[in-house]
Amino acid sequence: MRQMGKISINVRYLEKLVYSTGKVAMKGIRRFALLALMLFLALAGTSSGAELGPLPASDNAHIDAPKAIPFDLPALKKNWRERIAAIKAKGMLPVIDIESSFNSNKLNLRRFAQAMDEAGIALIAYSHDANNTKWSDMAARVVSADPWRFIPTTNGGVHPAWTENPKEFLAETLKHAVSDGYPLLGEFEFRHYPSPRQLKRGELFRDVVVPINGPLGQELFAFAEKTGLPFEIHYEIEDALLPPLEEMLGRYPRAKVIWCHLAQIRYSGRSSVYGPAYVRGLLEKYPNLYIDVAFGDSSSKYPGSDEYHARVWSGGSVKKEWVELIVQQPWRFLAAFDLGGDRQDQLPEYNTKLRKFLNQIPEPAREIVAYKAAWKLLFGDELP
């Protein structure tokens, strides 16, 4: 066997193939034909759009990987463009997940990369669960171990670092965002109820309240406006919380804000304003607002209220008025999984759920929401 590019070629088989007709007797002609065929196959295997990127060396390759900071974004973007083109060449719709997080001790990197390839997931903006530390470089180590599949994202603002030592955490995060060249800041929890899994376990520590128009929110919005770096917020959808958010969007009009979880309303009695018409008005009034589409499926209930909390669904279909809004404003909606550190093995399930939603969005809006909008927001240019 000989290796040409990434193709294994059985030379003896090819020689027999050349001889099979009995028409080629001269050794020179035989060798020329053989080499020509090998060259053709090798070029076919390395043609533009055929490279998904090498897999990480091992499941734990990220643990001791060297940090490569500041990030070489032009080189990374070259890899990422090739990967997106390769997925399209396979006849699949690429997806850029703008919002997920991980626990490095629970991340099986090589296995996870294989699952991404099989599912047609181009890139995941992965933020490290830093727990009680002010900062972790683990996202940089993940990108170092696999520079084809992950967009480096700063540590998210979550409990306990964000709730117990918020000033120190925010200062360290913003410092690294600039010095290391992160293109995205992770999800900051300004108002967050315990997740469904946490409620079922009786864990209430994640009932977080940080005023979005308070000092911490003002520092984050001002930083985003100054640097142009987008950031994510978790902000429950309730009538009383909407005016402070609008206040901040208006006060910092160049701060690019990704509001996670379209139409995820966990207590309907606390939300009478939010709906497609309200969201359309927000998008028209505040061009700096983006919304990701990570939410539960049509059967998902929030245990705290026993209500279906993904309000985009009517049965198994996306409500017509939401589809119409997304078609009208596709560049403001971003694909997302919201994978967490305790559910990395659920990537195929989350992929199926997201694609069920995307498949109900007509083209060209579907392709924009799936990956083009995220790319343009992060890097300022458009993919073909």
Itemize the secondary structure elements and their pairings.
Layout lengths: L1 E3 L2 E3 L1 H9 L7 H19 L27 H17 L5 E8 L6 H11 L1 E8 L9 H8 L4 E4 L7 H4 L1 H14 L5 E8 L3 H5 L7 E2 L5 H13 L3 E5 L6 H10 L5 E3 L16 H10 L3 E4 L8 E2 L4 E2 L4 E2 L2 E2 L1 H9 L4 E2 L12 H12 L6 H15 L5
Parallel strand pairs: 3-4, 4-5, 6-8, 8-9, 9-10, 10-15
Antiparallel strand pairs: 1-2, 6-7, 11-12, 13-14
Number of strands: 15
What letter string, H or E per element, gives the SSE order? EEHHHEHEHEHHEHEHEHEHEEEEEHEHH
Cα end-to-end separation:
38 Å
Helical amount: 40-55%
Summed up, what is this model?
This protein has helices spanning 11-19, 27-45, 73-89, 109-119, 138-145, 161-164, 166-179, 196-200, 215-227, 242-251, 276-285, 320-328, 347-358, 365-379, and strands at residues 2-4, 7-9, 95-102, 121-128, 150-153, 185-192, 208-209, 231-235, 257-259, 289-292, 301-302, 307-308, 313-314, 317-318, 333-334. It is of the alpha/beta class and 384 residues long.
Can you walk me through this structure?
This protein folds into two domains: 2-45; 73-379, TIM Barrel, CATH 3.20.20.140. Mean pLDDT is 88; it is low at 1-50. The strands form five sheets. Strands 7-6-8-9-10-15 form a six-stranded mixed beta sheet. The chain has a three-stranded parallel beta sheet with strand order 3-4-5. It has a two-stranded antiparallel sheet with strand order 1-2. Helix 1 packs across helix 2 and helix 7 (166-179) runs parallel beside helix 9 (215-227). It has helices spanning 11-19, 27-45, 73-89, 109-119, 138-145, 161-164, 166-179, 196-200, 215-227, 242-251, 276-285, 320-328, 347-358, 365-379; strands spanning 2-4, 7-9, 95-102, 121-128, 150-153, 185-192, 208-209, 231-235, 257-259, 289-292, 301-302, 307-308, 313-314, 317-318, 333-334. By secondary structure, the protein is an alpha/beta fold. Helices cover 41% and strands 15% of the residues. The protein is built from 14 helices and 15 strands.
